[in-house]
Amino acid sequence: MSDLFAHHLPATAALPCRQLQQQYGFAFRVTKPRRTKLGDFRRWPDGRMQITVNANLNPYAFLITYVHEVAHAVVSQTHKRRVVPHGTAWQQAFQRLMQPFLHQAVFPADVLLPLQQYMSRPAATTYASPVLMAALRRYDQPAPSGSAPNTRLLRDVPEGSLFLFAKKTYQRGTMRRTRVVCKELSSGRSYAILAHAVVEMDT
Fold first, then answer.
1. Tens of pLDDT along 118-157?
2. Domains of the chain, earliest start first
3. Residue 60: helix, strand or coil by DSSP?
4. Dihedral of CA 195/154/41/104: which sign?
């Protein structure tokens, strides 16, 4: 487990994150990338808890996602009744857990400032802060050679243009907060896709 944390997190965050896992007693897994989520938290009827985080996140995005999910574990343990998933209890837990990491020994300055602004009132996803997402993406690994060359973020696709996503062709529509309404051409149905989804232009 120690190697898992050390491999995916900033060096100064590995030990504190491992201690959170030990303190709250959840299973932790790193999973293959998922298109609809960066991480998740689950609690089974017998009380067991599991947190997963996508393997392809850069260390800073991985840390934010991990602590986001730990906050769900904390709320699950401390609130007997069901609460709003990203309501006040979760926001307060997330803010408290993130506080020890909010300095330049963990995050580079260009990520730290928008992260501090986001943490003043954290939303259900970091996609809600385009400035923070743009800062985090500067630290993503470049696409491997041989991958699709004509890819971009959905938010950067011109309205009305065609693109490929999950092996289907869509037409880019209008922006709605953190998502873009797009029409899937074969069915004619409209879907709200995350604005920071990576898509391939239809040439």
1. 999 998 888 778 899 889 989 987 655 545 557 888 888 9
2. 2-137 (3.30.2010), 151-201 (2.30.30.30)
3. helix
4. negative
